[in-house]
């Protein structure tokens, strides 16, 4: 099977900017997300490939190693300096006059063993096992608040995974000692899990901030009111100022996503006007009384000017 090319997966050039990579990922992730393509294994696999590509290309250090060394540069324990030393030796190696073969430096066996994790040369006692990588889906609020989930990965069932508060799409979690057994009785490797966050019913996330649409009645938006708003920590009371407007954003400080460096984002409630049943005759009477209030307003002027 051909090696996956992360740039081809995202449909961008190798010299693409961070913004171009992010836009390509978001477009493809929306299209192939498992929640949008339920019971479609091909879409799920495509989503995993897209997420894996973005995880590397959105990280400047990983991207540089990938550009220089390919997928092997992303292996745990990979040593770029050793890799360059080995490639330099390959380019400048001499052929032995006796055997017609390359002569390796005396420490080449050690170099290969360090470079490729002990896969070259003789085994030298117990060594650490290989790492395992996998993908899991978590709930939106588990990512925001943090928590613990139980998952099955490969042959390992019912693993307890602690989700750090403030996790986001493609966040990686490490489970120490849950990888492959170590050769020769060495310690096991680690398990790395990439998180995929399921969309929420009404929260939208932008960095550390959350947004939701808050339904309000006409009397509440005109006269003002105190209304209940759900937050990740439970409901709170929000004051809607008198003479508010539909689409207006009201901020609840510190009710957003926990940030790893400390602090917390905000929650924005976008006022969404809800009218009563328009078939009610009483509403028709009220609408007729309100009509003169629009006398000095051309509510569709902007549409005409921008058309």
Q: Low-confidence segments, ≥5 residues, pLDDT <50? A: 93-106, 117-123
How are the strands ordered across the major sheet? 6-7-11-10
What top-tier CATH class of the domain at 204-277 fits best?
Answer: Mainly Beta
Distance between the termini: 52 Å
Oligomer: single chain
Mean pLDDT: 83
Order of helices and strands: HHHHHHEHEEEEEEHEEEEHH
Measured by DSSP, the beta-strand proportion falls in 15-25%
The helical percent reads 25-40%
- Report the principal-axis shape: elongated
Please give the CATH architecture of the domain at 204-277: Sandwich
Largest beta-sheet characterization:
4 strands, mixed
CA radius of gyration: 29 Å
| CATH topology label of the domain at 204-277 | HSP40/DNAj peptide-binding domain
- Could you give the count of β-strands? 11
* SS field, number of helical segments: 10
Backbone structural class:
alpha+beta
Instruction: Assign the CATH superfamily of the domain at 204-277.
Output: Urease metallochaperone UreE, N-terminal domain
Verbal overview:
By secondary structure, the chain is α+β, with helices and mostly antiparallel strands. Among the domains are: 128-199, Urease metallochaperone UreE, N-terminal domain (HSP40/DNAj peptide-binding domain), CATH 2.60.260; 204-277, Sandwich (HSP40/DNAj peptide-binding domain), CATH 2.60.260.20. The protein has helices at residues 6-10, 18-32, 41-57, 60-69, 80-92, 108-115, 140-145, 218-223, 281-290, 301-306, and strands spanning 132-138, 147-153, 156-163, 172-175, 191-197, 204-206, 209-216, 225-229, 236-240, 249-252, 267-273. The strands form 4 sheets. Strands 6-7-11-10 form a 4-stranded mixed sheet. Strands 1-5-4 form a 3-stranded mixed sheet. Strands 2-3 form a two-stranded antiparallel ribbon. β8 and β9 (236-240) form a beta hairpin. The longest helix has 17 residues, at 41-57. 14% of the residues are buried. Residues 93-106 and 117-123 have low confidence and may be disordered.
